[in-house]
Amino acid sequence: MGKGDKRTRKGKIFAGSYGKTRQKVKKNAAYVPKEKPANA
């Protein structure tokens, strides 16, 4: 249960893989809302 174990989060980070324990989540930290056309 360490770097060599691909089933754990630490192991996945070490192996550079993703899955249930380490999911690819794109966080919108610098989220810029799209400009909506003004309804006249």
Features:
mainly alpha, 40 residues, rod-shaped
Question: Can I get a quick summary?
Answer:
By secondary structure, the chain is mainly α.
Give the secondary structure arrangement, pairings included.
Layout: H1 9-15
Task: Characterise this structure.
With 40 residues, the protein is mainly α. Helix content is 18%, strand content 0%. It is rod-shaped, with a radius of gyration of 18 Å.
Q: How confident overall, as mean pLDDT? A: 78
Q: How many H/I helices?
A: 1
Secondary-structure element pattern, one letter each = H
Distance between the termini: 61 Å
Helix content: 10-25%
DSSP, total strands? 0
Low-confidence stretches: none
Indicate the structural class: mainly alpha
- Percent of residues in beta strands: under 5%
The radius of gyration is: 18 Å
Shape: rod-shaped
Largest sheet: none
